[in-house]
Amino acid sequence: MKIIAVIPARYASTRFPAKLMQDLCGKTVILRTYEAAVNTQLFDDVFVVTDSDLIFNEINLNGGKAIMSIKEHESGSDRIAEAVENMAVDVVINVQGDEPFIDKKPLEQLIEVFKNDTDKKVDLGSLMFQIKDKKEISNPNNVKVITDQKGFALYFSRSVIPFPREENVGVRYMKHIGIYAFRKQALMDFYSLPMLSLEASEKLEQLRYLEYGKRIKMIETTHGSIGIDTVEDLEKARKLLA
């Protein structure tokens, strides 16, 4: 089974433009993320795929592997699909470009999902962890996920799900970490299918998979990695490294 990691890297982030090229204690955010993915030693290869000459050069000039997107893309999955379309791979791990503190263990768990899935019932795997603070739960920047009893995703939302009409029933609120593992075929199916209303409304690409009947296996982790979505997040990351 050939497994690669691909890091989609848009330059023009909506909430924090050029965040991937920001300095994070002597190296850019995207370079730290790339090096963290390589250092796990879990992958047969690691690539950054980008629409930006700056990011492309940043990775290549530091000894990494970068691919330029040919087309404009609405989502990271689309960008990755274009990059791997002609590659002979089985599983593709999507590592977010703004996640420089990658932990090896949950990535190993994602890979094990596919190694153990002999019946090929899993199309994608992804990560989640429990959050308890009410502000964190209500924050629309934190994507929440609910699952069935076997750990397959039922829905993802920026809203509070489930809604706490009754608070004393033992509901756990799970935050989605945007690291995915795809079977290549599921990724290519996604690439060929149009966006539907749920994805368009929430601006969450994972909903396209659910809308078209793909099965997403969620793995719970205790590792709530620091994603850099805002200037405040970047400052937290700098303090953590320092």
Automatic annotation (TrEMBL):
GO terms for molecular function: 3-deoxy-manno-octulosonate cytidylyltransferase activity. It is an enzyme of class 2 (transferase). The keyword DNA-binding does not apply. The keyword Cell membrane does not apply. It catalyses: 3-deoxy-alpha-D-manno-oct-2-ulosonate + CTP = CMP-3-deoxy-beta-D-manno-octulosonate + diphosphate. Its EC number is 2.7.7.38. InterPro entries: Cytidylyl_trans, KdsB, Nucleotide-diphossugar_trans. Keywords: Cytoplasm, Lipopolysaccharide biosynthesis, Nucleotidyltransferase, Transferase. Pathway: Nucleotide-sugar biosynthesis; CMP-3-deoxy-D-manno-octulosonate biosynthesis; CMP-3-deoxy-D-manno-octulosonate from 3-deoxy-D-manno-octulosonate and CTP: step 1/1. It is found in: Cytoplasm. Belongs to the KdsB family. PANTHER family: 3-DEOXY-MANNO-OCTULOSONATE CYTIDYLYLTRANSFERASE, 3-DEOXY-MANNO-OCTULOSONATE CYTIDYLYLTRANSFERASE, MITOCHONDRIAL. Activates KDO (a required 8-carbon sugar) for incorporation into bacterial lipopolysaccharide in Gram-negative bacteria. This is 3-deoxy-manno-octulosonate cytidylyltransferase. It comes from Flavobacterium celericrescens. The lineage of its organism: Bacteria, Pseudomonadati, Bacteroidota, Flavobacteriia, Flavobacteriales. The gene is kdsB.
